[in-house]
Amino acid sequence: MELFLAVLFFAFSTTITPGPNNVMIMSSGVNYGIKQSVPHWLGICFGFPLMVLLVGLGFGVIFDRYPQLHQLIKIAGTLYLIWLAWRIASARPETIATGKSKPFTFVQAALFQWVNGKAWVMASGAVAAFTSVSGVYWWQVAMITLAFLMMAFPCVGVWLVFGAGLRKVLTKPLFQRIFNIFMGSILLLSVLPVIAQIWRYYFTAAS
Q1: What is the pLDDT of residues 83-130, one digit of tens each?
Q2: Close Cβ partners of 9 (under 8 Å, ≥ 6 residues apart)
């Protein structure tokens, strides 16, 4: 029980803090409201725990054996996040209002976890920190997965509700435009540490 409480605290502290998932769900709340953003929210809440489970049950071993594969996924994910940052920053209220822009679907949000740098750090970090050879490994991984599943709904939901609350404040198109640029910039900043890691991996190490 003490270990599970520790995992819960870890899951809460890492899930509630700003990151690509929370920035995007908050932006979705502002631009589309709660109702249209529910699939996006559910995709995060179920997609990330599934990622933790799969990483714990074997994906980590694959990437340890083939580090280049992990690097390729990291690069693809970084490029995708940069594109998403531009998409959020350039989104205009009129395109959203006319339906030319759409929120993430459940599947899109779930698959997004695999190109999310913070999600990889959280998943691999949790598995490494809270599993041991002395215990029943599959049970430990299941416990970690359950902890993230329990914390995802309220932690990510807070960001969605906050974004929907801002929607009522940002009534003028100009204010919403400024908000989108701001959130796109934050998302881009969240990618910088991953870009630095890729740079060190390919260039600093080589020199």
Answers
A1: 877 877 777 765 555 556 788 999 999 999 988 878 887 887 788 777
A2: none
Return d(Cα 127, Cα 5) in angstroms, integer: 15
Q: Nearest CA to 198 among 19, 73, 84?
A: 73
Tokens of 11: 């899951």
> pLDDT category, 145, cuts 50, 70, 90?
very high
Q: How many CB atoms lie within 10 A of CB 123?
A: 28
| Helix, strand, coil percent values for the chain (each to nearest 5) | 85, 0, 15
Query: What phi and psi, each to the nearest 5 degrees, are found at residue 181?
Result: -65, -40
- pLDDT, position 100: 61
Residue 146 host element (H or E)? helix 137-169
**Residues 119, 21: contact at Cβ < 8 Å?**
yes
What would the pLDDT profile of 151-200 be if each residue is shown by its tens digit? 999 999 999 998 888 887 776 777 777 877 877 787 777 677 777 877 88
Over the chain, what is the mean pLDDT? 81
- Which residue reads 């695999």 in tokens? 114
Q: How many Å apart are CA 46 and CA 43, to the nearest integer? A: 6
Distance of alpha carbon 153 from its chain centroid, rounded? Answer: 13
Tokens of 63: 């990437």
